[in-house]
Each structure stands twice: as structure tokens, then as C-alpha cells.
Amino acid sequence: MTDIYGWLQLAVFSALLIVLTKPVGLYLVRVLDADGKTFLDFLLKPLERILYGLFGIEPEKEQDWKEYAVSLLLFSLAGLILTYLILRLQNHLPLNPQGFGGVAQHLAFNTAASFTTNTNWQSYGGESTLSYFSQMVALASHNFFSAASGIAVAAALVRGIARQTSKTIGNFWVDLVRVNLYLLIPLCLLYAVFLVSQGVIDNFHPYAQAKTVEAAQLQHILGSSPTAQQAAIQDIAQGPVASQAAIKMLGTNGGGFMNANASHPYENPTPLSNFIQILSIFLIPSGLTYYLGRMVNNRRHGWAIWAAMFMLFAAGATACWWAEAAGNPRFTALGIDAAAGNMEGKELRFGIFDTALFATVTTDASCGAVNAMHDSFTPLGGLVPLFNIQLGEVVFGGVGAGLFGILIFVVLAIFLAGLMVGRTPEYLGKKIEAYDVKVSVLAVLTSCVTILVFAAGAAASAWGTSSLNNAGPHGLTEIIYAFSSAVGNNGSAFAGLNTDTVWWNTTMGVAMLVGRFFFMVFVLALAGNLAKKKIVASHGGSFPVAGMTFVLLLVGTIIIVGALTFLPALALGPIVEHFIMMNSTLLF
Hints:
The chain is an all-alpha fold. The chain is about 65% helix and about 0% strand. It contains 21 helices and four strands. Strands 1-2 form a two-stranded antiparallel ribbon. A two-stranded antiparallel ribbon has the order 3-4. It is globular and about 85 Å long.
């Protein structure tokens, strides 16, 4: 924590995030307004019209919340089925220079569900399992579609808040087209070029082979046997990496082309690429808070939401950094210099701070990309990313998902404030009634209950514990983290847990679908109900939705819900493990 460069980088990161929030938010206003004008219109407007005609979309025809939800679910189902088929049949499809076979049924289902839901959990090694065609068509395309779907649902909820006496909340198909066409694709083209300039590969070459430095020693020991010859050769993965890395970060998807994800030098080669990747994860979620303020004609409210998110982010980042910088006393007992902190599972080129910042941001934002192995963090260092996910990943959150997730908590916070002062709660001139509170509570309960029920089932079953490499509290944390990551649509893993089994792949696939689409349907139901209401002028009894009082109430609501729900599980996992680590003299 005495690392001045760490503090300086945190300050630069925070400053850039603030500076970029407004321009990104203003651009989102134009993109998400069907009649909005952008500087890309001269190039993309004709293509937009062609796409509408090709798919029979009527851009002027809006949908109510049920029609919007049905469109979302049907589109996602079609994508899930297509992805499943591509993975199963990849050995018969082009761009497969390594000759990989078809993916097993349970793994294909898990992967299809994972990328459809913007989770991007990977029960496989990307470069050793999937062809270039599968990576590009089945997975990278979902990175665009799932990200656009999240932004579309957030826009629908904001419209529901901003409109009055309206039966519609927009058109899902128009939102999907415009977000991809005017936002994600142009940004990713520029981003991919930047990544290539930093050394990220992007090609269709077959895997290269290199003779290892240990080759001579192995041949001396083993002779010229096939075993020695095989051990002397290292396969170096190739492929279209930069194009997928760009959207995995901007779309808060997180699924890596390589198994090692952003810790692999082909995905994240330099300190600059590492910093920009971290910043890009928060870029669109941060801009959406300004979009909210602009759309509801209350910019101070948008900034208040941003402040609540940033407060939680800063607390998590500094806590994780402190825990990892403090190191592991067991290493100290072995004579390892404690000044370096806990470097287990981390890249030396990134160090403690960059690793802690990346881990905090990626779990705040339901991204799931990692530049280190979270399983190797200290117990309290690993608790931070786990708790970030369990908060609902509303700390900036995934693209779209973070905004509509925190707006659910805004409704609950205002309802609680109304109870405390004995007045009917109001939000931006609209009364918060029983229906609004019910769907908000159901959305939160869906995530919490799904995580705990599936984790309890795995912890109490042979299929769950047989995949663990660690017993005791750390093993329990691995199970809880896996289902928290699945339901929260994060995708990062604690590792140390083999999930490539029929039971794990199936249960996690179901958990991902429930965590994504049940929550979204409740959000759209809330949007539809709010859109019908009249907006009344603010008065003395209206609760202010800007200022420090509101920010603290919102932060408190988020933490209390997370703490009350998951504290017992966290106490049995990382907290117990921390006390064991600090007090045990046993060395393993």
C-alpha cells in the first residue's frame, strides 16, 4: 500500500473514467434514440435500413414490455441453439487447422449458455479445444449480441422511467441493430488495431512449434524415444485473438481466446494494454450513468448513481490491494521476502496493484477476464472479487446489466426510505407502488436464491466435491465462487475446480440462464409498469435522488442486501480461511 506508482495509477484511472463518462453518455443518447444523429450516419445509415428490410424490422413500431421480452428471449434462444450446433459440429466446419473434434454435449450446452448470457464461463482451454471458426462465429458474435442485449434492456428501463402514460418502451430489434452498428463494432475495430499495435496476435496461422530449451537435457536422459521428442516440442497457439479480445473487454464478456485469458502475453502483452483493457471494461457502464441522467432530465441523479458505484469500486480495489500486498505469513515462514506481497498466481510484469485493480474491475463489471489466478489470492484478497459478484455486479456492472441492476436497488432504497419517513415513496416524480417493489425484490431474490441453492447442492453432493482440488474452507469458496460467477454472469473462476463434468456443466449452464433472463424479464416488467405512470412535480415530500444522502442510502442498501444474504457463506469460506492462515503454523 506504500506503492506510490499504484496510487498514481489509481488516480489516473479514476480521472480518465470521469472525463470519458460524459462523452460516452452523450453518444449513447444518440445511439439509443431511434431518430438520433451520429457522426457515422453517412456511412452506416444505409446499412441500417438494409438490415431492417432484410429482417423485416419496422423501426417506427415500438413494443410493450411483454413483446420486448419475447423478442429478447427468442433471439437469445436462437443464438444458443446455433452456438450449440457449431460447437458440436466444429470438426466438419472450416478454419480448424488443428483438427479439433466436436465438443461434448454437456460442454457445448454449458458454453452456448455461457456466451448467450454474457457470462463467458469456460470449462475448457480455448486454444486447445475450439477451432478458429468456433471462436469467431459461435463465441465472438455472441460477445456482440449479448452485450447489445444488455444495453437494450437498460435503455428500455430508462425509457420506462423517463416516459409517462406510455404503453411502449422501445423496439428490441432496433436497439440491437443500432447498438452493434453505431457503438460496439466501430469501437472494437479501433480497439483491435490498438491491441495489435501492442503485440496481440490476429491471424489464421496453424499453431507454431518450437524446440524447448530443455530439449537437449530430455534427449540426454530419455534418448530419442517418442516421449522425449514430444516433450522437446512446444506448441505455440495462433489465431484471431485481437478481434475477440477487443469485444470481450468492451462488452464486459471476458471469455479469453487463450485458457490463461488476459494473463497470456498474446492477449495482454504490455502494461499499456493492461491499463487500457481495465479502463475499457468500465467505459460503457460508466457512460450509461450519464445517459440515465440525460434521459430523465436530471443529470445530478446520473452522477449520484456514478458516485455510488465508484465508492464501492474504490473500497473493493483498495481492500484487495491491501490484502495482496500484505502477503502470506506461510511464505514468510519459508523465508520468502514478504515485501513482494503475495505474488503466487500473478504475472511479474503486472505486479500486485495491477492485478488487484484488474480483479476488482472485472468482478465489479461482470466481465470475467482475468490477468491472474484468483484462486491464488489471499483469503481476504479473494473475498473482494467474490463479494463484488454477489452484490449483483452493480458496481458499474456489465454493459447495460450494471445500470438496470443498480436501478433495481434504487427502487428498493427509495421504498425503504419511504417506510422510514412514513410517506409514499416516489422516484423521479413516479410513485413506487407494490408491483414495482415486488418485481424488484423478485429480481434480487432470483439471483441470491439461485446462487445459494446450487452451491449448497454441489457442496452436499459427490458430483460437486469430487471435482475439488482443495478441501476445507477454500474448497467451499471455490464452489460458492463458481455459482456466484455463473448466476452473476461474470465468468471468472477461482480455478482449483474441474467443472468439465456432466453435472457441473449442466447445473452451471442452467444457473447462467436463470441469472440472466429471469432478472431481465423482471426488469422489463418494471419498465413497463413505470412507463404507464404519470410524472408529478416534485414537492416537499419527494425524496431527493441526488446528493450524498441518496448515495449513502443506495450504497447501504446494496451492501446490506449482499451482507445479510451471503455473510454466513463467506464466514465459512474465505473468512475462516483467513484466520487459519494467520494462526496456523502448519506449512503445506
